[in-house]
Amino acid sequence: MASSSSSLPLTWKYNVFTSFHGPDVRKTFIGHLRKQFSYNGITMFDDTEIERSHIIGPTLTQAIRESMIFIVVLSKQYASSSWCLDELLEILKCNENGQRVMTVFHGVDPSHVRKQIKDFGIAFNEACAHRTEEQKRKWSEALTYVAEIAGEDFKSWENEAEMIEKIARDVSDKLNVTPSRDFDGMVGLEAHLKKVESLLDLGNDGMVKIVGISGPAGIGKSTIARALRSQLSNRFQLTCFVDDLRETNLVKYGSQLQLHEQLLSKILNQDGMKVDNLGVMKRRLHDKKVLIILDDVDHLEQLEVLANVMWFGHGSRVIVTTENKEVLRRHGIDDVYDVGFPSEAETLKILCLSAFRQTSPPVEFVELADKVVRICGYLPLGLNVLGSSLWGKSKADWIAELPRLKKCFDGRIESVLKVGYENLHVDDQSLFLFIAIFFNYKHVDSVTSMVAETNLDARLGLKNLANRCLIHYENNKVVMHNLLQVMARQVISKQERKKRKILVDAQEICNVLENAKGNGSILGISFDVAEIKELKISARAFEKMRNLFFLVVNGHGKRQVHISEEMEFLPSLKLLHWEAYPGKSLPLRFCPENLVKLNMRNSQLEKLWEGTQLLPNLKKIDLTGSSRLKELPDLSNATNLKRLDVYECIALVELPSSISNLIKLVNLLMENCESLQVIPRLINLASTYISIEGCSRLSSFPDLPTKIRDLRVKGTALEELPASLTYCSRLEIVDLRDNGNLKAFLTELPTSVTSLDLSKSGIERITDSIKGLHKLQTLDISECKRLVSLPELPCSLKYLYAQNCESLVRVSGLFITPNAELDFRHCFKLDRQARKAIIQQSFVGGWGLFPGSKVPAKFNHRARGNSLTIPCSAFNRFKVCVVISPDHQARDHMMRHLVCRCKVIGDSVNSTGMKIPIKELQTEHLCIFHIVLRPSEVRRKIVLEFSTTYFLTEMWLPKMADVLGDTNFGMIECGVQILTDETIRNSNGESGDEDNCSDFRDAHESDDEASDKEEDDDNDTIANGRSESDSESGQVLDKEDNEVEDIADEDEYQSVSSATTHLRKEIQRPRFKKKKRKMNHMVKKFRHCIGTLGQKKAKRAKYL
């Protein structure tokens, strides 16, 4: 992209500036051209009143810079004029900035201009007489360059008037091409343009290249292409944008010729061109550097007819936009840019620009805007169209519109999206509808197996749909855009009723099920009971639907659905998804032999069926929220079952013993089964994930499968874990939170564990064996109220969460990874060595948080408040400590972060350092972290600014700091230690200044000697309580004679005054009673300082 385009004026004073030699053409060609431009409404600079001299003046230079297009008329005597040649140099400078140059060869041969030979060369030599070699070189290069620009040759035209008319048309076309700055309001466009430009490889003029732009309908492919043409057109001799290609039929040779005529007419700007064979394009364009954009290509034949790289001159580029990636592949186009969906932030901005004419929603529209974004599914076309339709409407209007938007959309959106569907093969159309209604966000293998008996080639069909950007894949799942799903429902609604394979209209489905009007052509039914008042399903409702594969009934609540136990129930059914199923069991004649997925969430079921059923295809059972379910059937024949979910089946007492034989069972979820007491042996399962949460009556646990990777046992009555856990060599995640009876866990865990959560458990002791977990990265012991000490932890640990461990006293050697995050919030009993261990951490990329009210003395640059200035230093690494006050402003839905910003004095750039979560502080805390600056920055003073940022926890708003802002509230004191090579080497041998960190442990300190030592340390800290960063300004408190040096500025006065106020508060604490006399002496000393400083301040003010 031409960065210079950003410097162009928003409006041009002149459309055209003409450079010409007056005696040659002023009264003839230029006069006629000016008249034609006036007729066409084109403004041209008039130089008749400018006095000619040997150099071009400021008026002419300004006119050149304020013109959009230049026409250089190269006549026989043009090069004899130094004025014209200097004018040309100025024009070419502007050409580099994005303005455009056109040429007219009036009575001269282009090659003579290029080489400066024959009569043109003689004239040039006359102008060069008495000129420097440098001036001659510049003029010569300018003439050579401009001669390469394709233009009109006067000798090729029989009629000058026709040539002038064509020039006027060309200028009009260039004026009508929107400059790239007009696309600036389009969110995310700049990033798209840069990526396509990198594929175009514009610096390589030795080749012709074709680049594809692919993506779903409405994603913005054409917009990107148009912006590229606008931005790059000045780099090419000729440009052309060919649209509406999708509808072009090229089977007949005549149609191909017509397409060539269309392209040549556009690119050469000659109406009514006729060609009699396909070789004309090559003859006309083989020596031209062209930019051709072929928009909305859908068939290979279109590229074969229009995009042959042999037809265009070196440096040419062809850009092809399409929804069909297969077309690009078959034409050999390897460089393809896939246009992705915008981010959440960009999506919200796109909608708001259309709906509110601003980049963020008004406060009262925030939630509604989020809902519209989700309906549109991040598609720019949908966001723009729906946003525009909601422009100026009230909140009540928005609320009323939302239900309609979920079912149907603007005709403009439908017309764009439907084209891709209509060009599919009939089998691919059927697969498209199945995915839209039943299988969006389902795994590829699941989709393939589900449609296996519908006579569709799922693998080939999925490939075709992906190539046409109608689906894409995320984590091996098939994903279709929300608006395409809406379109699919509209397609079904317009089909002939008796021939429909899928039923989606709730009222139509009620009629079919109540009156048994189904037929053998129906393959799937999907509806929501919220759309009906009552449904009484006939016992013979499914009798004629022998080919029904998919039955989906969504919704639950007060809507009434009545079924008969005698109902004939679908022998071919593969998917049964029925939320809030009203029966106590499935019908007696239920035949699940072909069933693959059984989803009966929130049902009234007490049991599934009687006896043992054949279940060879069953892979998933989901009974989540079936609160009346008392038992599960014998599942010994479900040999392919992979997932069993009984979440919140609160009446379920035990799992059947047959589960032990389900060797393919991978996921077993048993959360909040309050009555569950018995689980059979699981050792034979293939399970990699087992979740047992809220099973409050479960007191014992069976042996675990050896392949398990993720074990979550939370909120149970467990007192110990099974010994088999030691042999689970693949186990990575162990979550044992909220197990109050669990006082100890296994002496040895498998070394494969990476995450261990013991929070809110009854753990009293963690054994030294934890050090052997060399892959452990996360350890959570939060709210372990009985835990007194921590052993030495593995070096691999990155996250240690120990907040609210009210009994924790000792922490042994935290020699863990430098980028660790250590959270000791509200651990008030931490002893001296524990605090020392925390402070000595390097925290390169990490942080530490623990109770404290003062910055330790080792942080020798200190200041009260939220900012600190660091003097020049040869070192660029700093350790930072901040004292943070309790948080009384945050709410449950808000998160508070500490933010550190570094500002280099003399540099306008602010670089953000750490962002540390500090929510729910009940008392003052210390936060310690590490900052590394660029070596060039530390040669100047550095200002560190600390603030807290509040933001909401809702995921839909990505930048809540922009809404809630930063605040200095809560920043009490800050300090910095400059990390020299020596301090780093000696960091393990520090003497214990760290004791100054907190007043909180005084309540638990019984050793008077230790207390006296801390008081002395605190006195030193307070005596030096002013900002060390201000010491360079001249304020020094002499400890021997109590004299004060001259003041540099008012900040010194404020610093000492603040320190005195702080000291007065400190001596009121019980800890200072023994040394009150000494403290009072210090107060007098500070008062003397303030008096002296006040006098000098007054004298200074009087002097000023």
Q: How do the strands and helices of this protein lay out in sequence?
A:
Blueprint: E1 14-19, H1 22-40, H2 58-65, E2 67-74, H3 82-96, E3 100-105, H4 110-115, H5 118-128, H6 133-147, E4 152-153, H7 160-176, H8 189-200, E5 209-214, H9 221-232, E6 238-242, H10 253-268, H11 280-285, E7 290-297, H12 300-306, E8 317-322, H13 325-330, E9 336-338, H14 344-355, H15 366-376, H16 380-390, H17 395-407, H18 411-422, H19 426-439, E10 442-443, H20 444-450, H21 458-467, E11 472-474, E12 477-479, H22 482-493, E13 502-503, H23 506-514, E14 524-528, E15 534-536, E16 550-554, E17 560-562, E18 575-578, E19 597-599, E20 620-622, E21 643-645, E22 667-669, E23 689-693, E24 710-714, E25 733-735, E26 755-757, E27 778-780, E28 789-790, E29 799-801, E30 810-811, E31 821-823, H24 832-839, E32 847-851, E33 861-864, E34 867-870, E35 877-884, E36 894-904, E37 910-917, E38 925-932, E39 942-952, H25 961-964, E40 966-967, E41 971-978, H26 981-985, H27 1008-1023, H28 1050-1066, H29 1076-1103
Parallel strand pairs: 1-2, 2-3, 3-4, 5-8, 5-9, 6-7, 7-8, 13-14, 14-16, 15-17, 16-18, 18-19, 19-20, 20-21, 21-22, 22-23, 23-24, 24-25, 25-26, 26-27, 27-29, 28-30, 29-31, 31-32
Antiparallel strand pairs: 10-12, 11-12, 32-38, 33-41, 34-39, 35-38, 35-41, 36-37, 36-39, 39-40
Helix pairs in contact: 1-7, 2-3, 3-6, 14-15, 14-16, 15-17, 19-21, 19-22, 28-29
